[in-house]
Amino acid sequence: MNNGAHPPRELPHSLEAEENLLSCCFVDGNDVVGKCVAKHIRPDSFYNPKHGIVYERMLDLYHRQVSIEIGVVTEELKAKRQFEKIGGYPFLLQVSRQIPTTAQANYFIRQVFDLATIREMIRQFSGTIEKCYGFSGVSGEISEMLETARTRLDRIEFGADEHSEVQPFGSFPLPDENDPTSLFGRNRYISRGDGVLIVGSSGMGKSVFNYEWAALAALGKPFLGIETKRPLKSLIIQSEDSDGDVSEICFSITVAHQFTDEEREQVRANVLFIHEKVARGDAFIAKLRQWCEKHKPDLVWINPLHAYAGCDITDATLMGNFLRGGINVVNRHDLFAFMVVHHTPKPITGKGIPDKKWHEFMYEAAGSAELVNWARAVITIKPTESEGKFNIVLAKRGRRAGVMLSKPGAGDGITRLEPTLKIPVQHSTETVMITGRKHPFHLTHWETRDPDPEAAPEGGRFVEQYPDHVLIVYYPAGATAGASLSSVQRQASENEGIGRTTFYRRHRQLLEAELVTANAEHLLRRTERGDALASMP
To answer: Do 134 and 193 belong to one domain?
Structure first.
């Protein structure tokens, strides 16, 4: 008797797409398999188990950095006693005789991934549908079914733990000097998948900083000495600047850097603005996902953080949910880098208030340590005592940026390039006349300036002008605790990138100058004089 049940149906698949993808892997193995890994193609993504076996062997070769060729794959299959299982030479010839171009690989990757996702959805929700038909009316049963459905949907969309690829020690290939995932800096300072925190007080020019960096990145040009690896596309999401503000900044950047007509068009195509003043929390995440899928940026600028987080930024749990469970999910395939702008909770300078050290400042400004821990790099904009003059401090991972400053040599008058974590900058004071306007137009943009002059010695004794990147690591004079010499050395190495020899030489100088002192337990703190010097802008 026919009870109306549907006959068994074959799960959606495309053997042709699977064969073409494997053929692309044979043609340009490491490149195509790398793309498959980035798109989370797994052996079980293939409908035909034989295709999955072949891909598994290719994946193993890829992680071992061995050339992926049909002969090598054949030997691997034999070693694993899988060669006959897949059908031997006839099957491999059938797969490899497809003649797609590697340019078509992305299409076949998408085909395989999408069909695998559909099959997983069918498997996951078949049981849920049966439970719906068998609903008994028991209290709480619907809530349980809904929660199960949500969990299964998350498993499909974000990837379940059991599907996460486990890689053993030594299986990670060393990044190439021209690593394609690297976006900024000489040594992978900022890469795809990273989050960058840009911190400064209100009114400092953070928006100008972002727009100018994005415009120069669109042309592949350096910004304030930070190298850009290639032309990059930016999506700037902001809530505070009016259209008039954005227009003035864009005009200023175009004139200040003397963009040609061709460069203007390139920046126009590669820097996109979204003015969003309403969405927060989950609503913002949902929109963010849509924007990123549509525009496919290399950089996503969020300005400012507190406008979109929709939570108390001092709460580590809530911030973790927004950052790691929210925006990280949008970029779970490491397609771009986040550039997140954050206001400080209060001015960082003031009468009678010592200027904070970079490692102290970035944590207090973040509200929650979770934000700084999430960020791959932290950049702070610190004002000096002179109006309009600032120091850009590369406060986390900064050594990798590779920024160099010219400094005169000691005694020989020879100017040398030295690595730095502090970039002296200022607001431009340049003006231009615009046809049809009576008054000069002030160009709003950042420019580098000469470094602050070195402090003069007092009585022949060692005096170090801020920033002394060793002095700021010690506990302040008024602290109830102190730190051992080895602890301070470790902090100087990890936070400032200072080598052991340089540290111990500078430590002796600081002791002799009475800028640092040790108590009876040999715990170190700065003296009041050391505090004063460490607090100088």
So the answer is: no
pLDDT score for 495: 66
Q: What's the pLDDT score for residue 467?
A: 41
Tens-digit pLDDT profile for residues 203-223: 889 999 999 999 999 999 999
**Residue 8 counted as domain residue:** no
Q: Are residues 195 and 118 in the same domain?
A: no
Flag the least confident range among 156-170, 182-196, 457-471.
Answer: 457-471
Which CATH number belongs to the domain containing residue 20 in this structure?
A: 1.10.860.10
Long-range contacts of 385-388 (CB under 8 A, 24+ apart): 385/349, 385/537, 388/426, 388/427, 388/429
287 vs 299: CA distance, rounded Å:
16
Do 99 and 226 lie in one domain? The reply is: no
CB of 406 closer than 8 Å to CB of 417: yes
Instruction: Tally the C-alpha atoms within 13 A of residue 147's C-alpha that lie toward its C-beta.
Output: 5
* Domain that includes residue 58, residue range: 15-161
Tell whether pTM > 0.70. Answer: no
Least Cα distance to 316 among 388, 253, 374, 251 occurs for: 374
Q: Is residue 72 part of a domain?
A: yes
Closest CA to 31 of 172, 155, 205, 180: 180
Do the domain assignments include residue 5? no
Average pLDDT (336-347) is 81
